[in-house]
User: What shape does this take?
Amino acid sequence: MDEQAVEFARAYERETGKRPLRDEPLSRHASFRIGGPADLFVETSSPSELMAAVLMARAAGVRYRVIGGGFNLLFDDDGYRGLMIRNAARGLKLQTGTGTIEAASAAAIDDLTRGAAERGWGGLEFLAGIPGTLGGAVYGNAGAFGRAMCDVLVEANLLTPEGAEVRVGPGSLEFAYRHSRLKTSSDILLSASVRLLPASSEAVRAAMDESLALRARRHPPRATAYPGSFFKNPVLPDGCKQAAGFLLEQSGARGLRVGGASVFQGHCNFIINDAGASARDVLALAAEMKRRVLEKYGIALEEEVIFVPASA
Ligand SMILES: Cc1cc2nc3c(=O)[nH]c(=O)nc-3n(C[C@H](O)[C@H](O)[C@H](O)COP(=O)(O)OP(=O)(O)OC[C@H]3O[C@@H](n4cnc5c(N)ncnc54)[C@H](O)[C@@H]3O)c2cc1C
Assistant: This one.
């Protein structure tokens, strides 16, 4: 660990009373169950603690990254040189007057959809079953069934790289398919509010159950180690989206394997870790899948899952 990291660890403990973990295996923090040790690891349990960790890392010149549930990540076999900040600041506030729900960035998407449904509000049914936090969902504009976070986000409270707290509307987040400005700006989402629609709890629950049933049919069994769809669905020159799973299937990807990573038999856009896979196995398998689709269709698939390299 370098001097800056040691300085951060001391300052963080002094300020918060919490000692950062050293060499924490990142495989414990990713649904893929892959990843070596992070030099330093902290879990923050409030937006102010999250802010303090980010600002102190910046002040000490320590490389850092904020993660939520780890449901969309592939960590490096060599881990992470720097500080991994796991955001665990939960909490929701339903504003019945304005029909919005305000939530801390580590609120689980599942708590948002269920919390709204229990109080007779809908509009978030399409998010049912997407694991992870609000922060991860805004970062990647998560969605399903033709809708995404960009359709429901009202306001985001961001921590800028300069340390300022700013409130912005969806227009300034440059949302696109599985993309937001957070991917390029290094802003951190502290909290956000999303729009709800009045609905009966029964109707919302029925719609959520329908989405969950559809997911259960498409996805691998619950205990499987994987991070959801591996590739984005490519947009063709005519503007239509093509299912990456279909292209991969037609290119002979079903059942391909490299080491401990394989293409799920039931759906070719899922890479699963079914035998102690390394990140290197996954990257080699993904490269072969991309190569086949490029060769057969001339389409370059892009990863939806985010690879976090050990060093910058
Ligand atoms: C079984 C399964 C099903 C899935 N289905 C879907 C689906 O239908 N649709 C879909 O879109 N995705 C799906 N996913 C992927 C995943 O659930 C989403 O991408 C989710 O939004 C990730 O949230 P997270 O908190 O786990 O983010 P993480 O994986 O922890 O992080 C993702 C990225 O967000 C950044 N980030 C996290 N929090 C913040 C923050 N507060 N501020 C700034 N940046 C932040 C991280 O640095 C990282 O780059 C699925 C995954 C699984 C395992």
Observations:
- The chain has a mean pLDDT of 95.
- Residues 92-217 form a domain with the Uridine Diphospho-n-acetylenolpyruvylglucosamine Reductase; domain 3 fold (CATH 3.30.465.10).
- Residues 31, 65-73, 87, 105, 130-133, 135-137, 139-140, 142-144, 182, 188-189, 219, 227-228, 306 surround flavin-adenine dinucleotide (CB under 6 Å).
